[in-house]
Design goal:
With 309 residues, the chain is an alpha/beta fold. It has helices at residues 31-41, 56-67, 135-146, 166-178, 187-193, 200-209, 249-263, 269-272, 277-295; strands spanning 2-5, 9-16, 22-29, 46-49, 51-53, 70-71, 76-78, 84-90, 93-99, 122-126, 151-155, 182-186, 214-218, 224-227, 233-236.
Amino acid sequence: MILCAGEALIDMIPTPTVSGGEGFVPHNGGAVFNTAIALGRLGQTAGMLTGLSSDLFGQQLDQGLRDSQVDTQLCIRSDRPTTLAFVKLVDGHASYVFYDENSAGRMLTEADLPPLPDSVNALYFGGISLACEPGADAYAALLARNHTNRAVMIDPNIRPGFIRDAARYRARLGAMLAQSDIVKVSDEDLDWIIPGAQTLPQKAQALQASGPAVVIVTRGAQGASAWLADGTEVSIAAERVTVIDTVGAGDTFNAGILAKLSELGLLEKPQLRRLAPDDMRRVLAFGAKVAAVTVSRAGANPPWAVELA
């Protein structure tokens, strides 16, 4: 099982009403949630570890996970409210206002964490769950407990507006990156993690030197590049599609990376240290392919495997 650990929330999407104004419609979301459902739809054995509310939105999220064949047995349930993210779309790009105080997801602690079953062979972390405490500390503890014998991928998806204490966040994130095998960052994320005048390849290599075997950097319409453990750089172009919106694009890309690695039998620590460039190119291309489907339709709506045949 690939276990996705992090936020599940409700995106309140602006939608025209009968009267002509705009209302907000609740859609399932959250970066880690999106990656989990994409993995399930791609036919992977996927699970989710998150704080789920017993409220009506938590029930909606739980149903959404199960509808996409994601195991929810490791979700931690409480009567705290579900995080709400009100979305504003401008030219297909999303900005958010979050309501997250005392939420079921944010208030996780290390004491809440269950032991992981042996069936979990890979872990995925990311999103705002790495910035919002106390949950962020719980996820860091989960990784520290379980990284030695499981493949780990992290996409920090950095949103500076969520970071209350930059030094504390950098220290926690740095420790998590050092315990990972794959780190995926956007070029903007990379500039935040490693500020300064170095080139993008120099920054990617500096990040890789901190611990991960593979560093993947996405550059939107310019495609993506990966740096392998032996120093090889592999790049692919972005798929050309008509973009409806970019909600969930990076999350689906991450699912494609994990799914293809798993399909190829490469989602294991030793294998990730000796990835062949041709295999990495196939992995990146599949990530780009599934992300292209997501951006070609509204909202975070990852494709099912049958749609890619």
